Amino acid sequence: MFRTHTCGELRLSDAGKTVTLSGWVQRARDLGGMTFVDLRDRYGITQLSFNTERNKALCEEARQLGREFVVQAEGLVRERESKNNNIPTGEVELIVTDLKVLNGAKTPPFTIEEETDGGDELRMKYRYLDLRRNPVRKGLELRHRMAIEVRNYLSQQNFLEVETPVLIKSTPEGARDFVVPSRMNQGEFYALPQSPQTFKQLLMVAGLDRYFQIVKCFRDEDLRADRQPEFTQIDCEMAFVEQDDILNTFEGLAKHLFRTVLGKDFTEPFLRMPFDEAMRDYGCDKPDLRFGMKFHELNDLAQQGRFKVFDEAELVVGINAEGCANWSRKQTDALIDFVKRPQIGATGIVFVKWTEEGLKSTVDKFYAPEDLQRWAHRFGMKEGDLLCIMAGKADKTRKQLNELRLHLGDLLGLRDPWTFKPLWVVDFPLLEKDEESGRWHAMHHPFTAPKPEDAQKLFDQKDPGSVRANAYDLVINGTEIGGGSIRIHDRAMQEAMFRVLGFTDEDARYKFGFLMDAFEFGAPPHGGAAFGFDRWVSLFGGRSDIREFIAFPKNNAGRDTMIDAPSRIDEIQLKELGIRSV
Ligand code: ASP
């Protein structure tokens, strides 16, 4: 038997017992006649104690132990003289009577402690060592707990977990596909699912009524801290539902997770904010509601033929940074530098501050004090506040001001990771226009239904931009946690949608004929949603890098540096697949 207990288990009440532990050497301390070894496993750390007087040979062996050696120790549990209150096993130690080295270890390339000296690259290359560290392991434990609670809740709600295939045909979710060549069908390719979208809809046609799956999805797109080429979704679909049924069901899921995993009770219904309002008030479709700083527009008050920058702008819009009137020139200049960064691309900010001396702005020479007062009134500004105003093309300016708002939120400490502000953003437009190509794209995906009252416009191909969808996103703290929609379940409507998106009828049939055929065999009205599981876990873990919550993530170049993938394959393999690499 390798062990009678884990390294996290022994307490004072175990004193006097003879036990066996197995684990890794975290650290060995040699204090002359005494040697102490911290033995670690997934569950904790227990101190092993050796004494020359008791057993010289054993003490000598203990001295030879290196970091991360795998050892087995038998001994007597004893109350410690100097207790360590920082760990649950800190009141006891093991007086070792027998020690066995099960395996040696090279010196690890970084320290395996709470805080490590290893950089990202090293940690990823030796991820199996990184995973021995508490914070990373805790991330995986959180992930496990959340997966269980997702299954608990959804099972209670009659959802069936059904697996869908991984070797499929392209399902467009707005990214590129990863493709897999077929040896048996040379020249043809599978696509890995960007999501199980079409399959879950087919499961509704099949009468399964409620489906879910915690499932890997694959999207070939540029990576960021909250994106991985393969990631996990909680994917769900329901038949015979309207938007409200879906929102209520998954609001229930979110509340269940908040309660069971974080011990937070949300009794109030989540806010539901129309897309247009989110864009108008926060300049983005995933507003962070942990703080205010709502946008207010100033076109009517600021465009008076005196200040060209404002007069010529499509939009003049600002936010009120409460309590920032006393910011130094250096601080406000830093804000300007922030919005001038190429990623944001604004030209500047107009400031209005309200100090003891009254209202003062950086455009005083163009505006009278009464003008500034009117502006201040619109923002509900008080003494001590600082208005930040930006101007330019409407969409761009909103985006830029959104960045500034979030930046100010960070600077002012208003984005505490343990405060949670969930909301649903609803009434998304069905389509958006790609300015470059002039083509319409599905804002969510091509299977999303128009609102019934807007449906005719789709058939007439009239003003597609004004068609709204029963599509919704769950947003928490400025992060899109998931989204979904009511689907099209009617062939003619699906064909009309593909036409608006620029598919020829033939192309639509080639790619999605199977789904449209299914719609002709009694497809029930249905809808659903999918939630980014990695993101949700990282939100609950209080850190924004989703890689911290994935056992073996890829780096920013889409590589797994540990196994060195992607990598070349043999000529023979290529030949079998009928592929030549150029
Ligand atoms: N398939 C969608 C996605 O991956 C979610 C949904 O519409 O249910 O975003």
Helix content: 25-40%
Which cofactor or ligand species appear? aspartic acid
Mean pLDDT figure: 96
Poorly predicted ranges: none
The largest sheet has its strands arranged as 6-9-10-22-21-20-17-11
Q: Could you characterize the architecture of this molecule?
A:
It is a single chain. With 582 residues, the chain is an alpha+beta fold. It is built from 17 helices and 22 strands. A hairpin with a 2-residue loop joins β14 and β15. α4 packs across α16. It is globular and about 95 Å long. The model has no long low-confidence stretch (mean pLDDT 96). It binds aspartic acid. Aspartic acid binds next to β21 and β22.
Give a brief outline of the structure.
With 582 residues, the protein is α+β, with helices and mostly antiparallel strands.
List keywords for this structure.
582 residues; eight-stranded mixed β-sheet; alpha+beta; binds aspartic acid; five-stranded mixed beta barrel; 24% strand
List the helices and strands and how they pair.
Layout: E1 18-31, E2 34-41, E3 44-51, H1 56-63, E4 70-79, E5 92-103, H2 120-125, H3 127-130, H4 134-156, E6 160-161, E7 179-181, E8 189-191, H5 197-205, E9 210-218, E10 230-239, H6 243-262, E11 271-274, H7 275-282, E12 296-297, H8 299-302, H9 308-311, E13 315-321, H10 329-340, E14 350-355, E15 358-361, H11 369-378, E16 386-392, H12 394-411, E17 422-426, E18 431-433, E19 440-442, H13 455-460, E20 471-476, E21 479-486, H14 491-500, H15 505-519, E22 526-532, H16 533-540, H17 571-577
Parallel strand pairs: 3-5, 6-9, 11-17
Antiparallel strand pairs: 1-2, 1-4, 2-3, 4-5, 7-8, 9-10, 10-22, 12-13, 13-16, 14-15, 14-16, 17-20, 18-19, 20-21, 21-22
Helix pairs in contact: 4-6, 4-16, 14-15
The chain binds aspartic acid (ASP).
Residues 173, 195, 197, 445, 483-485, 528-530 line the site of aspartic acid.
